[in-house]
Design a protein that fits this description.
The protein has 258 residues and is α/β, with parallel strands linked by helices. The protein has helices at 40-45, 71-85, 97-108, 139-145, 150-159, 164-179, 189-192, 213-222, 237-240, 242-255; strands at residues 4-10, 13-20, 25-29, 50-54, 90-95, 113-119, 200-205, 227-231. The chain has a single domain (4-255), classed as Alpha/Beta hydrolase fold, catalytic domain (Rossmann fold, 3-Layer(aba) Sandwich), CATH 3.40.50.1820. It is 38% helix and 19% strand. An 8-stranded mixed beta sheet has the order 1-2-4-3-5-6-7-8, with helices on both faces. α2 (71-85) packs across α3 (97-108).
């Protein structure tokens, strides 16, 4: 399936979007490394859902608002983006950093969210271990650490079109701007999530070297009634185990359609 590409103007900035499939709307928010095109995960989920895959403001081809300085405001922009697409609430799947953005959206604007799936989400300080400090290594080394399999990493690099190093560096610059102090978490979020009442699923990859298991478990405990599951592979599960995550997402969101 070839996705449709378009842009949406929100708060004076253009947000780049890939979209495909048919059915209930599912918005997928990418990791801090960027959207990385239309992956096998997007393709699988598009067989059951109308997939919206925006590049977050400041990332990839989307405009970078000069005023944007924190993840809470980034989530507010995604809420406005969602309103511009459809006035009705929809489901969200947040991957890593995108899970943090989706969680902020659910905490501050619960009326925009019907169901929430978070894979290895950042945004909460882990009880044990720590979210890997990407700012201590080169951008490409950080991307490499997201894979459990070197073969999967090499395959992903080989298929990417364009200047990969420039894209990764630009995206990391944006992450530094909005999520450096404190590094990759919001001290308030764990408490605000207790007000989220929408059905939620938290997923963690068993060989994730970026986000520790305790971070996912803290999310599970913070969101009332949240479910928890694990999938094989590293942080970049959309390349190493896309079908395993897609199966969980389809089953969970399918319950909401019954």
């Amino acid at each position: 399936m070839s996705p449709r590409s378009f842009s949406v103007r929100v708060a004076g900035s253009e947000i780049d979007v890939l979209s495909g499939g048919a059915g209930p709307r599912l918005t997928i928010l990418h990791r801090d490394t960027g959207r990385c095109g239309w992956t096998r995960l997007h393709e699988r989920l598009a067989t059951h859902f109308n997939i919206l895959a925006p590049s977050l403001p400041g990332y990839d081809a989307s405009d970078r608002p000069d005023w944007l300085r924190n993840v809470t405001d980034l989530a507010a922009l995604i809420g406005l983006f969602d309103d511009a697409i459809d006035s009705e609430p929809g489901a969200f799947l947040g991957l890593g950093f995108g899970g943090w953005v989706a969680a902020e959206l659910a905490a501050h604007s619960p009326g925009r969210v019907t169901r929430l799936v978070l894979h290895s989400p950042m945004g909460i300080k882990p009880m044990t271990g720590e979210i890997f400090d990407q700012f201590l290594v080169e951008a490409e080394d950080y991307a490499r650490k997201g894979f459990a399999s070197e073969l999967a990493y090499e395959r992903e690099c080989a298929t990417e079109v364009g200047n990969r190093s420039l894209r990764l560096d630009r995206n990391r610059e944006m992450t530094t701007r909005i999520a450096w102090k404190p590094a990759m978490f919001n001290p308030s979020l764990k408490h605000l999530l207790r007000g989220v009442s929408k059905p939620s699923l938290v997923v963690w990859s068993t060989d994730d070297k970026i986000v520790p298991k305790s971070c996912a478990e803290t999310y599970r405990d913070a969101i009332v009634g949240a479910r928890y599951a694990e999938v094989p592979g590293g942080h970049m599960v959309e390349y190493e185990a896309p079908d395993a995550l897609a199966d969980l997402v389809e089953d969970f969101l399918g319950e909401g359609q019954a």
